[in-house]
Write a structure and sequence with these properties.
The structure is a homodimer of 348-residue chains. With 348 residues, chain A is an alpha/beta fold. Helix content of chain A is 43%, strand content 17%. In chain A, α1 packs across α2 and α10 crosses α11. The N and C termini of chain A lie far apart (74 Å). Chain A binds a DNA duplex (30 and 30 nucleotides) through α2 and α4. Chains A, B: This is LacI family transcriptional regulator. Chains A, B: It comes from Streptomyces griseofuscus.
Chain lengths: 348, 348
DNA sequence: CAGCCGTACTAAAGCGCTTTAGGCTGCTTC
DNA sequence: GAAGCAGCCTAAAGCGCTTTAGTACGGCTG
């Protein structure tokens, strides 16, 4: 029962060749579906390989120009910020699903900031480690697309804006603008006129898109008590900002939070301050998760299929690796799930 | 501004050799700190390499027997279970910190179950992809240690019990038993006699350890209204079990939840049923996170430094890769942070 | 001054795979 | 009946690195 210490050598193509009585090249042809071997030989080689439990060495493959069979994903977030965030694991989970199918590995790294992230790309590229990368949290004035383009590393930007300037980059994006517009429309219909958007990290492309759209929608309707305030996504800042805006002379009647964590913290804070949700103030969370059904009132939230988002991104990347053209694909607009935290504005 | 399509060839040792006017082997010696070159040559080679931006190709390195400079981590959880869980990203974050220092990559994969996980290990091993792995969520009767031992793949088990049977495996573990004992002791001191433990996944080593300890502590004190109920860690099951136990004739006065998500769901459920926390029922969460301070009452929780846990594990693995002996190291016992959700038992 | 040794370096093989350039059959074609 | 041509297969080079074996040279010894 205690396992024996067997050195357990991995079989190589040479072993297969010997056992099958053919040359190594024949084995290579056979196993890769290339012409140059008869069907019966091919089958025999396949059987031997199978029986020996052979798997190609990625190192050797990579070295002979086939690529590393690996894609990279780096997360640039200060370590403590990535605590309670369902988004990433879900996304990764979706990504994996399609990568696993193709036997592609996922090299994962978390770093502090974007410059570090760029350094990682350079290193991965120089070390031949990855065939392509998935870029998350695109920013306004992002240096990463230029870098990846320069390195010739295929990439798909997740959540970016459509980008025609970079030939090797695909983009998978959600229509934040449309979602924001529909949320504002809904709140407006409920009588809300003073709306505060507790946004995420300033500089993130989607944050800025949401802010711009909110502003535009407000202007279009002649609303003046509308603003966006950026945060670091943490519950602490979410609570602090909530406290601040509710403490003002003319507090907002609706709050839009850029993630579920802040929304939760916001509701708790509002309640503490004596505001009743949704009677005094409506709350909507941008990002749905179990959290939203874990407090009363249940949070109305913008929901989207994050795993599917990941799957789509991974598909685009594999397409790129197969030599396909860069594309821009839009995933469905997040839908607003109305639960208990939104209601008519007081006095409307 | 639109990036130019430069093929951007990676420099190789041959390039360095040419520029420095020495042989490739000299370059190798110089760059790897091996004897056989003079100091001045070594320095010259280093400068040329630097200036060319050279980085060793991991593929080539791996092929010539140096290992893949990569460690693996696979997460065996049904995709939807890993939603709201701060634990993993934190752990990974800590792991990365020490891996990055040594320029080791982290190959990451999420799969459905343990058999799939084993298949991944076999594949990684056969494909020469990783030099070692980190194993999480050890189980009772776990097939993984035997497998890894057989493959000769260095590994550290995170959260396992000490294990002397496997020579290549290190273990990093937290003293769940001690923590459980202290929690029970605290609750007992507050007058609690009927305690229910809403546990995590049955079959996980630490789940079983906690359950065993709880039972032992109860017996020692002659308590009869004490039990553990296993769940899938989800808020849904947490809520369901809470509802069930509180609905009984003699409901418990204290609840111990194996994660923060279930604890939160539990508090919400209890409140809904008309139980006041902590007046009617005390709640403690096993695993502290921002969540615990996001609802009122704030949750008392067992807190530990998860990033540090990850760091420790990664250190052990690098030690193993350096040829060190397998070890068993214990991380600090989780500390109970008393917040608002625990109090004296009613009538005590 | 032959013989020896240590230092600084080079040549070449090998890791496991892909791929190009042949080689050898046996068949058609004029 | 010789040239041409498939079809099937092998030999060998090459990917970028490490490592072993070997060479050249200067200085030491006896």
């Amino acid at each position: 029962m205690p396992a024996k210490r067997s050195p357990a050598r991995r079989p190589t193509m040479k072993d297969i060749a010997r056992r099958a009585g053919v040359s190594e090249s024949a084995v290579s042809f056979a196993l890769n579906g290339r012409p140059g071997v008869s069907e019966v030989t091919r089958e025999r080689v396949r059987r031997v390989a199978e029986q020996l439990g052979w798997r190609p060495s990625t190192a050797a493959r990579a070295l002979s120009g086939e690529g590393a069979a690996t894609v990279g994903l780096v997360l640039a977030r200060p370590a403590d910020t990535l605590g309670v965030d369902s988004f990433f694991l879900q996304l990764v989970s979706g990504i994996q699903e399609v990568l696993a199918e193709r036997h592609l590995g996922l090299l994962f790294q978390v770093v502090e900031d974007v410059p570090d992230e760029c350094a990682v790309y350079r290193r991965w590229w120089a070390e031949h480690r990855v065939d392509g990368v998935l870029v998350v949290d695109p920013r306004t004035d992002d240096p990463r697309p230029d870098l990846l383009d320069e390195l010739g590393l295929p990439a798909v930007v997740i959540g970016g804006a459509p980008d025609e300037r970079h030939s090797g980059l695909s983009t998978v994006w959600a229509d934040d603008a449309g979602a924001m517009a529909s949320v504002v429309e809904g709140l407006y219909a409920l009588g809300h006129r003073r709306i505060v958007h507790i946004a995420g990290l300033s500089g993130l492309a989607h944050t800025e898109r949401r802010i711009r759209t909110l502003r535009a929608e407000a202007r279009r309707r002649g609303l003046t008590g509308v603003e966006s305030i950026t945060t670091d996504y943490s519950d602490a800042e979410g609570a602090a900002v909530t406290r601040r805006v509710l403490d003002s002379a003319a507090p907002p009647t609706a709050l839009i939070y850029d993630n579920d964590v802040m929304a939760l913290a916001g509701v708790a804070t509002a309640t503490e301050l004596g505001f009743s949700v949704p009677a005094d103030v409506s709350v909507v969370a941008w990002e749905d998760s179990a959290l939203c059904r874990m407090v009363r009132p249940w949070l109305s939230a913008l929901s989207r299929d994050t795993m599917e988002f990941g799957r789509t991104a991974a598909c685009e990347l594999t397409a790129l690796l197969d030599g396909g053209p860069a594309r821009t694909v839009r995933v469905p607009v997040p839908r607003l799930i109305e639960r208990e935290s939104t209601g008519a504005a007081r006095g409307a």
